[in-house]
């Protein structure tokens, strides 16, 4: 079992505090949801886990089992088995999907002292593309260049299926998707589900959680996890809205700061 | 099979003497020469290299599967030529070629060019017959195998006669340090389509000077691609003159500089006739202490109304200390046309690097892949048989340690 443990994590961007003491666990065998209003720091948390250089951790820590994750380079975290499905995937002109995925898989195997079986890779890739109901032509297209929002999100899921990480964070993978795309993306995440996979689904809405049902739900507000619960918390949030969260926890917050 | 005739007309000797004479009055280029402002003569150890003997001709065998004709020249075996078709001929210069060369000598003011013409009277001429349609490219492979410190002056006239359709690949290789001073004199006949790929992959103790001139007749289409990979220092000039209306010139370039490599490239798109089109796309990546200079010029004469010309130069600077100079220029005589140029020079986008790192690629690997991506569209436009090998060579160079 792998546990990603976030302890009292505080972080800032350009001197502005964003995360104000996050405690959270993501473990294999479990899907967690992280919900919260815009600007509460969900993407910040995702980027810090992955090691984006823009953010500065000021206190607390993140541990991958016993490994201090924050001391690792970005690519080392990826090779451990951490994955982030980006809210805004980056376009890489001139690099085809096929070549990129092959390279990514090669470095993953090289780290384990293994070699890529190219024909098996292509077979698997083609079948995953079919699984996500994408066009086989995607193999030859430049990574994310000219992709629609929905295509970019599906490409993130194709990468997930190809790289088979242990723990994945999905940053608003559902946003901007129509119902078909949402169904396919969810299908991809559900295929990963199992004792060797853990996920954190960051979302604003209940929608995706109807397809990928979370084992645990966390609600984040102004850089803190204000409450956690089971699936029914999603329902409460859907009924009462984020104003309920703000009303209920905003006050404590002010008291905190004051 | 020996299509190369050995007789040489007297005027070639004259041409040579006239060139040698010009040298008497002209020193080596200096910083005062506009085109030499960024390449110091001290980078070009001309005197450390000895003039080489002309290469003897030997008959060739059969060209291999990828090519319809192959000419090979190297310092051990000399010259060989083999062709599957009578439509491609290799010969020495003839009387009819004279004006083409005299005109060039009148026009070009450069010590290296005169040294080139003065070096020997041997000029090979390659003809693609009128109306010939070649399915596979012609290969011209020049190679220095083992003789050290030679100065060599390959000179080639290429004529794509009217109505022909052909591709040609010129490869310049060496296993040892060589000072190569080359000249191409190209004519693309009326209505013909000619695609030329020039690959420089000399050893990194080598030097390369090139003066190449092309002329296009009406309705012709000429594609030129420069793949500038090897050598210590290169200083090249490629001038395309569009002499007939409705002609099209497509130029592309890939160049890489690492270690202390220095590559200075001049490209001229010269429109001398109406309603012609030219389009240039040169891309480079520099790292370590490497330096590239791209001097592109779109020149449109009075006759060039309704010209449509475009010039683009993109450079990736992979580390501090490397440098890429981009100097696009327009010289235009009137308004009735569309000319645009653009150049970008910068580091690799850190967000792109980060994205690839989150997929397990190291910083170095990510930069290699992104840089290779910059060149992909040009690699994809190469003759099919070259795509994978060139991609491999480019990747190796992007990855190698200085
Ligand atoms: N590049 C940035 N520069 C400055 N502030 C930023 C930047 N990115 C995010 N922020 C701020 O950090 C806070 C949290 O943002 P984010 O983590 O994106 O929230 P969420 O994903 O929950 O919507 C917001 O107040 C936002 O304005
Ligand atoms: Mg966000």
Can you characterise this structure?
The complex is a heterodimer of chains A (258) and B (402). Chain A has 258 residues and is an alpha/beta fold. Helix content of chain A is 41%, strand content 26%. Chain A is built from eight helices and ten strands. Chain A has a six-stranded mixed β-sheet, with helices on both faces. A four-stranded antiparallel β-sheet of chain A has the order 2-1-4-5. In chain A, helix 5 (149-163) packs parallel to helix 6 (179-192). The termini of chain A are far apart. Chain B is α/β, with parallel strands linked by helices. Helices cover 19% and strands 42% of the residues of chain B. Chain B has six helices and 21 strands. Chain B has helices spanning 10-24, 98-107, 111-119, 350-357, 363-380, 384-399, and strands at 50-51, 69-74, 78-83, 88-92, 124-128, 138-144, 150-152, 155-160, 165-174, 178-188, 193-201, 207-216, 221-228, 233-242, 248-257, 262-271, 277-286, 291-300, 308-317, 323-332, 338-346. In chain B, strands 1, 4, 5, 7, 8, 10, 12, 14, 16, 18 and 20 form an eleven-stranded mixed β-sheet that branches. Chain B has a ten-stranded mixed β-sheet with strand order 3-2-6-9-11-13-15-17-19-21, with helices on one face. The mean pLDDT of chain B is 93. Chains A and B meet through helix 2 and helix 3 of A and helix 4 and helix 5 of B. The structure holds adenosine-5'-diphosphate (ADP) and magnesium ion (MG). The site of magnesium ion (MG) has 5 residues of chain A, from helix 1.
Most extensive protein-chain contact, per-chain counts: A-B, 31 and 24 residues
Q: What series of H and E elements makes up the topology of chain B?
A: HEEEEHHEEEEEEEEEEEEEEEEEHHH
How many DSSP helices of chain A?
8
Percentage beta strand of chain A = 25-35%
Gross CATH architecture of the domain at 3-89 and 165-248 in chain A: 3-Layer(aba) Sandwich
Distance between the termini of chain A: 41 Å
Q: List low-pLDDT spans of chain B.
A: none
Distance between the termini of chain B: 45 Å
Mean pLDDT of chain A: 94
The count of DSSP E runs of length 2 or more, i.e. the number of strands of chain B, is 21
How many β-strand runs of chain A? 10
Question: What letter string, H or E per element, gives the SSE order of chain A?
Answer: EEEHEEHEHHHEHEHEEH
Which descriptor suits the 3D outline of chain A? globular
Helix content of chain A: 40-55%
Overall geometric form of chain B: globular
């Amino acid at each position: 079992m792998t546990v990603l443990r976030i302890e009292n994590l505080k972080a800032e961007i350009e001197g502005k505090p964003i995360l104000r003491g996050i405690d959270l666990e993501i473990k294999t065998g479990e899907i967690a949801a992280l919900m919260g209003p815009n600007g509460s720091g969900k993407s910040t948390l995702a980027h810090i886990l992955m090691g984006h250089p823009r953010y500065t951790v000021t206190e607390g820590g993140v541990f991958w089992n016993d490994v201090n994750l924050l001391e690792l380079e970005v690519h080392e975290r990826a090779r451990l088995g951490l994955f982030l499905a980006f809210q805004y995937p980056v376009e890489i002109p001139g690099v085809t999907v096929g070549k990129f995925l092959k390279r990514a898989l090669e470095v993953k195997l090289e780290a384990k002292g293994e070699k890529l079986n190219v024909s098996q890779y292509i077979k698997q890739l083609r079948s995953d593309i079919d699984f996500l109901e994408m066009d086989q032509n995607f193999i030859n297209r430049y990574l994310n260049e000219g992709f629609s929002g929905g295509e970019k999100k599906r490409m993130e899921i194709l990468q997930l299926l190809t790289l088979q990480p242990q723990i994945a964070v999905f940053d608003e993978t559902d946003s901007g998707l129509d119902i078909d795309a949402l169904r396919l993306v969810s299908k991809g995440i559900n295929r990963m589900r199992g004792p060797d996979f853990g996920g954190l689904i960051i979302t604003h809405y209940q929608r995706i959680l109807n397809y990928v049902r979370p084992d645990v739900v966390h609600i984040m507000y102004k850089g803190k996890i204000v409450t956690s619960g089971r699936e029914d918390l999603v329902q409460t949030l859907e009924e009462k809205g984020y104003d309920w969260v703000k009303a209920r926890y905003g006050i404590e917050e002010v008291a905190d700061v004051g | 099979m020996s299509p190369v005739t050995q007789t040489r007309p007297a005027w070639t000797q004259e041409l040579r003497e006239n060139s040698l004479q010009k040298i008497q009055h002209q020193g080596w280029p200096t910083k005062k020469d506009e085109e030499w402002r960024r390449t110091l003569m001290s980078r070009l150890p001309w005197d450390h290299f000895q003039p080489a003997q002309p290469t003897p001709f030997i008959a060739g065998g059969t060209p291999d599967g990828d090519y319809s004709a192959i000419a090979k020249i190297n310092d051990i075996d000399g010259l060989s030529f083999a062709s599957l078709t009578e439509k491609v001929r290799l010969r020495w210069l003839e009387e009819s070629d004279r004006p083409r060369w005299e005109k060039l000598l009148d026009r070009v003011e450069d010590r290296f060019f005169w040294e080139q013409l003065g070096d020997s009277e041997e000029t090979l001429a390659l003809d693609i017959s009128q109306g010939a349609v070649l399915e596979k490219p012609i290969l011209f492979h020049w190679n220095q195998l083992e003789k050290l410190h030679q100065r060599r002056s390959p000179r080639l006239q290429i004529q794509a006669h009217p109505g022909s359709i052909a591709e040609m690949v010129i490869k310049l290789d060496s296993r040892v340090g060589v000072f190569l001073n080359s000249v191409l004199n190209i004519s693309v006949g009326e209505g013909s389509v000619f695609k030329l790929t020039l690959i420089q992959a000399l050893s990194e103790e080598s030097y390369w000077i090139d003066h190449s001139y092309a002329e296009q007749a009406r309705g012709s289409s000429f594609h030129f691609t420069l793949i500038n990979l090897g050598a210590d220092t290169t200083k090249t000039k490629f001038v395309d003159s569009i002499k007939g209306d409705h002609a099209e010139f497509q130029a592309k370039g890939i160049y890489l500089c690492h270690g202390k490599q220095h590559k200075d490239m001049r490209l001229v798109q010269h429109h001398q006739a109406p309603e012609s089109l030219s389009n240039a796309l040169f891309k480079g990546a520099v790292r370590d202490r490497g330096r590239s200079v791209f001097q592109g010029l779109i020149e449109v004469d009075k006759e060039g109304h309704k010209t449509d010309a475009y010039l683009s130069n993109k450079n990736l600077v992979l580390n501090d200390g490397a440098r890429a100079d981009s100097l696009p220029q327009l010289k235009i005589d009137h308004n009735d046309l569309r000319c645009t140029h653009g150049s970008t020079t910068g580091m690799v986008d850190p967000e792109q690097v980060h994205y690839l790192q989150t997929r397990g690629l190291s910083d170095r690997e990510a930069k290699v892949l992104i840089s290779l991506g910059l060149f992909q569209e040009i690699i994809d436009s190469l003759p099919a048989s070259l795509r994978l090998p060139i991609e491999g060579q480019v990747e190796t160079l992007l990855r190698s340690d200085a």
